[in-house]
């Protein structure tokens, strides 16, 4: 009877330790999920800024090309 009781106590202690390990792992997983969400938001913001910067650079290039054509037109034909 005593041996069975000791075995039961050992099993309960093991289960308790495993439960704590699972809870700790779950908490770490939630922390990682939050960190991934934050990084995803940062990457999305960076992508938007990059697209906006490309649009600005493209617009500046187009304006400069138009200005060059305009200057050449007046230099050659006037």
From TrEMBL:
Organism superkingdom: Eukaryota
Pfam family, one: V-SNARE_C
Annotated localization: Membrane
UniProt membrane topology term: Single-pass type IV membrane protein
Listed SUPFAM superfamilies: SNARE fusion complex (SSF58038)
Key words of the record: Coiled coil, Membrane, Protein transport, Transmembrane, Transmembrane helix, Transport
Transmembrane segments: 55-74
GO biological process: protein transport; vesicle fusion
Gene Ontology CC terms: endoplasmic reticulum membrane; ER to Golgi transport vesicle membrane; Golgi apparatus; late endosome membrane; SNARE complex
Example GO molecular function: SNAP receptor activity
Family: Belongs to the VTI1 family.
Protein name in the entry: Uncharacterized protein
